[in-house]
Specification:
By secondary structure, the chain is mostly helical. It has helices spanning 8-18, 20-25, 28-43, 45-48, 56-81. The longest helix has 26 residues, at 56-81.
Length: 95
């Protein structure tokens, strides 16, 4: 017996399919960024599945914003604490 309600992942892929004309119109470097942003929405599909009462586009944007906020927080932490040293790098800072 088939599903009567599409899964969130199915909704998300249909949303992303609708945006493909927009993607094709972008410059190549912007297409790469667009793909990266869309992959961020896919990363949180499991959590978004629990929000059946929300519009799937809203949960896609929330997932994207969450990943962007994580990246901002990591950049801020790096700015405050400095870059992390490679595991094999000496404590004196010599490579």
């Amino acid at each position: 017996m088939g599903r009567t309600v599409p899964t969130y992942r199915m909704y998300l892929e249909s949303i992303l399919d609708r945006w493909m004309d927009y993607r094709r119109a972008l410059r190549e470097r912007d297409r790469e960024l667009f793909d990266e942003v869309m992959n961020r929405a896919r990363q949180h599909a499991s959590a978004a599945s629990y929000c059946a009462h929300l519009d799937p586009v809203e949960t896609a944007f929330l997932s994207i914003f969450l990943e962007m906020q994580r990246e901002i927080a990591e950049l801020k932490a790096r700015q405050v604490h400095g870059p992390k040293r490679a595991s094999g790098e000496a404590a004196t800072g010599e490579a």
